[in-house]
């Protein structure tokens, strides 16, 4: 009997062509939400981008990036299956705030 491998039973992806360059990843991220879309989301809620990310106005780019990563990790829909609609809404707010501040 063959020994079971680490990834046996898990869905894997073909990565023969690589994951893409950092520039391609940035462009893909930008395509997901434009500044106009982000502005619409932020104006629908009564919070500023700084309040959503929990940072002070005038925060550095590194502080914005750190706050974004922490919040998106916390509110990612894959990690919040028990409250998926709330997680999706919060993720959109977080991405919109990050889009407007960067």
Automatic annotation (TrEMBL):
Pfam families for the chain: DnaJ
Transmembrane segments: none
Stretches assigned to the J domain: 48-102
Name this polypeptide is given: J domain-containing protein
Species of provenance: Chitinophaga hostae
């Amino acid at each position: 009997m063959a020994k079971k491998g680490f990834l046996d039973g898990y869905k894997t992806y073909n990565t023969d062509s690589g994951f893409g360059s950092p520039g391609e990843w940035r462009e893909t991220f930008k395509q997901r939400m434009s500044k106009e879309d982000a502005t619409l989301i932020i104006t629908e809620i009564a919070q500023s981008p700084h309040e959503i990310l929990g940072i002070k106005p005038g925060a550095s780019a590194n502080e914005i990036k750190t706050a974004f990563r922490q919040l998106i990790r916390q509110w990612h829909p894959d990690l919040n299956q028990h409250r998926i609609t709330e997680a999706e809404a919060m993720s959109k707010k977080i991405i919109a705030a990050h889009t407007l501040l960067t």
